[in-house]
Each structure stands twice: as structure tokens, then as C-alpha cells.
Amino acid sequence: MVQKMEEKGGSHVNRKKGGIITMPFIFANEVCEKLAVVGFHANMISYLTTQLHMPLTKAANTLTNFGGTGSLTPLIGAFVADTYAGRFWTITVASIIYQIGMFSLTLSAILPQLRPPPCQGDQVCKEADTGQLAILYASLLLAALGSGGIRPCVVAFGADQFDETDPKQATKTWKYFNWYYFVMGAAVLVAVTVLVYIQDNVGWNWGLGIPTVAMFLSIIAFVFGYPLYRNLDPAGSPFVRLMQVCVAAFRKRNLDMVSDPNVLYQNEELDASICLDGKLLHTKHMKFLDKAAIVTEEDDIKSPNLWRLNTVHRVEELKSVIRMGPIWASGILLITAYAQQGTFSLQQAKSMDRHLTKSFQIPAGSMSVFTMVSMLSTIALYDRIIIPVARKFTGLDRGITFLHRMGIGFVISVLATLVAGFVETKRKQAALAHGLVDKPHIIIPISVLWLVPQYSLHGIAEAFMSVGHLEFLYDQAPESMRSTATALFWTANSIGNYVSTLLVTLVHKFSAGPNGSNWLPDNNLNKGKLEYFYWLITLLQVVNVIYYFFCAKIYTFKPIQMHKKGGDSSSSEGVELDNKV
């Protein structure tokens, strides 16, 4: 949890640390992290299948497992940063761990003995042995751990550099977020174009070595900027407070609930550091948790044992997190659908004519550039056109609520996988017409641009749903947990990747026929039923949309009483109404 700088004796303000001068050092770290993650993942299935000779299904599951683990570790990073190390040291150590993983993976691409020998003619390719796979998995695990320390901290650490209490800097935090997303988007575009092209046409040693060297230089730059940073000390983990409420409520489970919520425990001094903007008001939901705030004769109200007695604000923090759960979970299946771009969609692209001109063909791993361009274009269009127009009809500053924004993204994602199934049908028809069903290594004379709609629709869906999801988590999370909101977002991504792994495994197992047929064959998509798999995901997403609309309709926004500068409080009823669907 971030504390006010004034609480540190004003030393941070007096030294006038932070500000825009720190941005190059912070952005350098973020750019290289994105170059590494996207540069590795965008084309990694090609490396696994062509260099390590993995079967397609095993390679796809390896990637989704890596993506899932890399999206789960931000919870660990957020916990370490908030509780023990602070953001600067968490980012620094995590970057070094990431660097080690990148170095070992690059080394495996350079040294021939760390990968199986090349295939010779029609000879069956030898798959990577246990030792070679161990190096791969260790490298991916280190990269996932490193990414977990960078992702949840770098955004908040950058925002920490601007003092919101300084009128001259009050608006620069918002500019920072715009710069952050622009720089991140630019890094992703470079990764899916330049790096993927180098990997396919120059070599994997250069394709992996360039982001490895860049990451090393970014660590030096980030650490070099230490004297300039405004560093905020860790002030305890919000997860501990949530656990304290659970334990206190359980210990007092046999008490009768009080009829008047005003007699529940309040302690503004105790909560001062975790509700700087305003305190949460009591709600009637989940009354069993209110027992954690019932004062008994055994409780010391001046110096309470927080494992036995908690304030209403702390109880409401837990209620807010629980209420967010169903909406948060709805984002999982979108990631499951999105994950196919890096696996089966990429394999589709490799089998199609990728020539944009006679002399240039787009690398299969660069197809995600259409996703990025459509996503960034949609965000710009949303900010400049949709919001001003919607504002005239809704009266809301944000144009439409984040719940509406998420709903639009879900619907578009359904269209993306539906279209993907029809495109796969057309691709296989082209293979059949040209007699290439049994020749998976020969390019089918059908343009790869047929895949653009599904890639673009996924990008548009992400611009609506993913950004709305982040906005929802930040707005509805307790104030003290906003620094972990990004970690919760990445956790949904993690589970989405694991669901993809489970789904691919089950479909591959139960669609297997006695004659060797399979919806998701290992070596020849032309003989598979990939369109059925896409339509299965479409059906699951339709069910998810219905589930989401139900959860959004019954969702209760957190009630908060805002603090005035003079020390008085004002009700947030207007703010709450502004958020209603």
C-alpha cells in the first residue's frame, strides 16, 4: 500500500525527487520487458516446433502454460512489493531474474548441443531430449517469475514519481498513463514485426539475443536512475488485512448480529493510512462478515487485536473484493479465446500464402500486428469520438460505464471466434481443391489476409473488454488494494491460459478417432477439425456473456464517503450513481 509522502517526514518532497526526468529510466525497463515477452511468445511456437521438434499440441500447451504462469506470478510480485521490498527493489531483482531466463534461452538457441539435430529430408525429426527440455522449462519459469515482479509494479512505480499534492504535477499522472500505453504498444509492435522477422529470416540466436541484450542495458539504466526516484516504503499487505477480517468473523461466528450498524467498530485513526481519499460505508450484504466488527468485553478498542476485531472499513474492503469476484472471473474465457492467436491461428498463417508483394512475405508470428493496430486504433477512436458522443446521451464523464464497455468487448470476442471457424473452413476447402490435404508442408494458395478479420476483432474486443476490466478493478477495488489491481488482472489472464491448456488437452483426447483422426492433430491441420474447436469456444463465450450480463445487472458498487480537504466528509452518493449500469 502506498503511503502519503508527507508521512515520511516530508523528506521526499523536500528533495524534489521524481517527476518527468525519471520516465526514460522506467520506460526503458518496460519496453525491454515487452520486447522480451512478446518477442518470445509471438513466434515461440515456431521455435518449439521447428527447432525443438515438439508436436503441435504439446507446443501449444507449453506456451499457454508459460503464459498462465507468467500471468499468475504478478500476485507474488505485488505481495512482495507491498509487504517487504517496495516497488524499486522488486522491479530490480525481478529484472535480473528475467535476464537470467532470457540468457539461458538465448544460449540454447546458439549452442547446437542444447537442441536436437535438424531434420534431414523426410526423416522423422528427433524431439528434444529431457535435458534440452529442462533448459527450456527452466528458462521459461525464470522469465515468468521475473515478469511477475515487473508487471504489477512498473505502472504504479511510474505514477509514484508525480506528486498529486503538487498543483504543478497534478495532471501529469494522467499524461504518464497515456505515455505508458503508447510506449508499451510501440514495443509490442516492434516485437511482432522486427523481432519476429529476424527470428524467421536471420536466426533465432539474433532473434532472442537482441531483447536479451536490451534487457541487460535497461536494468543498468533503471538502477542508474535510483537517486532521482521518489521511493515509497512498503506499508503492509492488503491480503493480510483481508485474512484478519475472515479470522475475526469466524472467531465471532456464534455472536448475534447487532440490529444497528452504527454500533459496529469504527476507528478513523487506525484506518487513516488505508483510506486517504475516503472510508467505505457499511452495506447490508454478507452480514456474517460484520461480526468481525462487533465489540465485545474482551476487545481493546484503543489497541485492538486485528485478528479478533476489525473496523467497518476493513470489513467492507473484503466485501468489495468478494463482490468483484464474479465480474473479474468473467474475463477468463476472453483470454482463453485470445490465446489461440499464438498457437493454432499462427499455424494457420504458416500454411497460407503470406506474400504481400512478390519479394516480401509477412512472418506468421507477425500476424498479431493486426491485433495490436486494431486495438490501439480502437482505443484512440474510443477516447476521441465514442466518449464525447456517448457523454451527450449518458451525462457520464467516461461516456459509458466500464461494465458496458466490458459487455461490448465480450460480444465482439464471440464474433472473433465465430469468424475464425468459418475462415478455417475456407482454408481447408482451398487445401482440398489443390490436393494439398496430405501435404501440410506445402503452402496453400490462399491469402493469409483471410485471417485479418479474426485477428482484428480480437484486438477490438481487447480494447473494450481488457481496458474496461482494468478500469473496473481499479475503480471498485478498495483504495489500499489499487496497487494490486493489475496483479488481479494478470491473474485472470493466467487462469484463461490454463483453461486454454485444459480445453486443448480435453478436445485432443476426446476427439481422437480410431483411424487416427482428431480435431486438433499434431502434424497436419488440414486433416483436423479446428473450426469445431473455434465454434466450441464461441459457444462457451455465449454462455459467458449471459453469465456476465446477469452479474453486471445485480452488481452493487462500493459505497464510499469521500474526505474533504478540511477534514470533513462528504457522501459519495453522486459518484455511486455515476457508476450505475
UniProtKB/TrEMBL annotation:
Q: Which family does it belong to?
A: Belongs to the major facilitator superfamily. Proton-dependent oligopeptide transporter (POT/PTR) (TC 2.A.17) family.
SUPFAM superfamilies documented for this protein: MFS general substrate transporter (SSF103473)
Q: Which GO terms describe its molecular function?
A: transmembrane transporter activity
Q: Which Pfam families match?
A: PTR2 (PF00854)
Query: Which terms are listed as keywords in the entry?
Result: Membrane, Transmembrane, Transmembrane helix
Signal peptide positions are none
Q: Where is it localised? A: Membrane
Record's superkingdom?
Answer: Eukaryota
Q: Which GO terms describe its cellular component?
A: membrane
Q: Which residues cross the membrane?
A: 96-114, 134-158, 179-198, 204-229, 360-382, 402-422, 488-512, 532-555
Per the record, membrane topology reads: Multi-pass membrane protein
Per the record, the major location class is membrane
The record's section on InterPro entries has:
MFS_trans_sf, POT_fam
State the name under which the record lists this protein: Major facilitator superfamily (MFS) profile domain-containing protein
